[in-house]
Amino acid sequence: MSNISRLMDAGIIAAGAALNPADQQVVDSLTDDEVSALISIKSKLTADFVQRNFPSSATPAPGTRTIGIVF
User: Fold this and answer.
1) Over the stretch 4-31, which tens digit does the pLDDT of each residue have?
2) Residue 58 DSSP symbol
3) What is the mean pLDDT of the chain?
């Protein structure tokens, strides 16, 4: 499974996100350990923490929330 797919499945990259080639290259260059760390960190953040501290530029679907991570 690709890094992009793993991060989409984990909700770190929004499903259907239009990543440009440079973004794809950055995500693809992450090691398995780095991708696993991002997923682990996200799983430890509560929904309340995310809602209060990660503003979203897009309106998420009801009951969902995405996190923007800058690489």
Assistant:
1) 999 999 988 988 889 999 999 999 999 9
2) S
3) 83
Cα–Cα nearest to 39, from 61, 69, 17: 69
How many angstroms separate the CA atoms of 39 and 12, rounded? 8
d(CA 38, CA 45): 11
For residue 69 the two structure tokens come to 């991570």
Q: Where in the chain are the domains?
A: 3-53
Q: What DSSP designation does 61 have?
A: P
CA distance 48 to 31: 29
Task: Please tell me whether the overall predicted TM-score, pTM, comes out greater than 0.85 for this model.
Answer: no
